[in-house]
Write a structure and sequence with these properties.
The complex is a heterodimer of chains A (352) and B (172). Chain A has 352 residues and is of the alpha/beta class. Chain A is built from 13 helices and 13 strands. The termini of chain B are far apart. Classes of the chains: A alpha/beta (352), B mainly alpha (172). Chain B: It comes from Pristionchus entomophagus.
């Protein structure tokens, strides 16, 4: 063709660009001369002339920090901000300190345990430590803060990963721990408290608080000391199992870094599984898989009871505590993975 | 399904008119709906007329943007449960905005294009221009935001103290 004779001529695929648009030069002149963009706005223009939805849409591209600051500009923006919802990939509420290595390792373990938890392929991308922290809320000890910003976030944000790492016990921390329950639609929630004084979280960790936390998220990791996890009752866990099974909650995975072994055993008893002298007894159709460390010092059990899996990981001879997970498997594939988990072998159970 | 040769004549709020390919107008929810409402046979009636409530200078910019983006995927991929960011505006769009979003212009064209994108329901253009607006206050202090947006503070001293306390963690 004539066009291809000129190597510098770039062809638009299919149709020539100018033909397609006809030409901008073909714009017929307007009736009145001197049309200017936004001429009617010239005298009083500012961006607040935009409809609320458009301001809200623009702000939805900003970080949480920017948005909370923007709410301090004037009353109108504050009103718009209060009414806008937003999505945050990962929030870390912390008192400045790095996450210890061993906790990161734990997290990886938990992640392996929950892979494919609800059969949604995207779920596999939930790689906790690859998701960059898009929001880091850092409180410095000794400074005075208001927990209202957390309340605002609780009301407005949908969050993929929320981590809370606070130290010691102060009234402000109590407010924050209470506010976690007001969050809605968090995918992954990690609650932890450090420092010597865990009394506050221990005091708060009643059944209703734990169940309240599970209402605000899909995956809860309690990264707490034994004195706090001691307050977690078999009854509360049993209730949670029932809620997860009958679909009355979106919650699907609870992980506790350290739970008393006898509590695990009591819970199993409540669901109809007896553990005695290294043997599982049940009249239910359950499957038990076991993994032993080479020196047999640590044993892990994975117990499948319908769609629920219990995982217990403990140094069975020395320690009264172990890691504990309750997981709801929503698909057959997810259960199949449990059955084929590396290092685990099915063991016999005895009828009651 | 859309016949590339089909034309649409757009009449602006100030009486100008321009004829463009359906390849461009298919990205405008408003124009698409207007054409659908006319229930015309794409083959039988090759030219449709749609009145738009946008002035002709703004419409020229909209058409320029649509021409560049005529091959964008449809339907426009809307992000709901996904993190939104303002720093992913494509290079062509950035250069396009820089041509007219000048200091002298005082954001009037931006205002006009955002409004036009909203009226014509062109989601890609709306997102891009709203991101441009967001970028203006990204990382700015409250005082800077007031200046950029030309807004007066109308909080009382007490309310300001409360806000400062609330935002203590994010004051820069």
């Amino acid at each position: 063709s004539g066009m291809s004779q000129d190597p510098g001529e770039e062809l638009v695929e299919g149709l020539d660009k100018m033909e397609e648009v006809l030409s901008l030069d073909q714009f017929d002149p307007p009736n009145e001369a001197g049309s200017e963009i936004g001429k009617e706005l010239r005298d009083y223009f500012n961006l607040l002339g935009l409809p609320i939805e458009l301001i809200s849409h623009s702000f939805s591209f900003l970080s949480m920090e920017d948005r909370l600051r923007a709410a301090g500009v004037n009353k109108r923006l504050k009103g718009i901000e209060l009414a806008s919802k937003y999505y945050v990939e990962r929030v870390l509420i912390e008192e400045a300190e790095e996450i210890p290595k061993e906790i990161k390792e734990w997290m990886m373990m938990m992640r392996n345990a929950v892979d494919g938890d609800d059969g949604d392929d995207n779920e596999e991308d939930l790689d906790f430590y690859d998701v960059k922290i898009s929001q880091r809320i850092t409180f410095h000890k000794g400074k005075s803060y208001s927990s209202d910003c957390i309340r605002r976030i609780a009301q407005n944000a949908s969050i993929k990963i929320l981590e809370i790492q606070l130290y010691g016990s102060e009234e402000f921390h109590r407010d924050i721990f209470n506010l976690i329950k007001e969050f809605d639609g968090i995918k992954y929630l990690e609650v932890g408290i450090k420092g010597k004084d865990k009394e506050m979280l221990r005091e708060m960790m009643v059944d209703s608080y734990l169940l309240g936390l599970t209402k605000s998220c899909k995956f809860l990791y309690l990264n707490v000391s034994e004195s706090v996890s001691e307050k977690v009752t078999p009854d509360a866990l049993h209730q949670l199992c029932k809620d997860m099974t009958d679909g009355s909650t979106n919650f699907c995975n609870l992980a506790i870094n350290s739970l008393r072994k006898d509590r695990c055993i009591e819970l199993l008893k409540l669901v109809g599984i007896i553990y005695r002298d290294d043997t599982f007894f049940s009249s239910k159709e359950i499957e038990v898989y076991e993994r032993r460390a080479p020196d047999d010092s640590v044993r892990s059990y994975s117990i499948i009871d319908g769609a629920i899996e219990f995982m217990i990981n403990c140094d069975i001879f020395e320690c009264a505590y172990g890691g504990f997970i309750i997981c709801l498997h929503k698909t057959r594939d997810s259960l199949k993975e449990v059955r084929n988990r590396e290092g685990y072998f099915r063991i016999d159970i005895s009828p009651e | 399904r859309i016949y590339p040769l089909m034309r649409v004549t757009l009449t602006t709020s100030d009486g100008a008119s321009v004829t463009v390919s359906r390849q461009l107008t298919k990205h405008s929810g408003f124009i698409e709906k207007a054409i659908t409402d006319m229930a015309v046979d794409d083959n039988a009636v090759p030219l449709s007329a749609v009145a738009v409530d946008v002035d002709d200078a703004t419409l020229k910019l909209v058409i320029e943007w649509l021409t560049e983006h005529r091959d964008d995927a449809l339907p426009y991929p809307e992000k709901t449960d996904e993190e939104r960011r303002a720093d992913d505006i494509p290079a062509w769009d950035q250069a396009f905005v820089q041509k007219w979003d000048t200091k002298e212009d005082q954001q009037q064209t931006l205002y006009a294009v955002i409004t036009a994108a909203d009226k014509l329901d062109i989601k890609g253009l709306l997102d891009m221009t709203c991101k441009t607006l967001a970028n203006k206050i990204n990382g700015k202090t409250v005082e800077e935001m007031r200046e950029i947006l030309q807004l007066e503070c109308d909080f009382t001293e007490e309310e300001l103290a409360e806000i400062r306390k609330e935002n203590a963690w994010c004051e820069n």
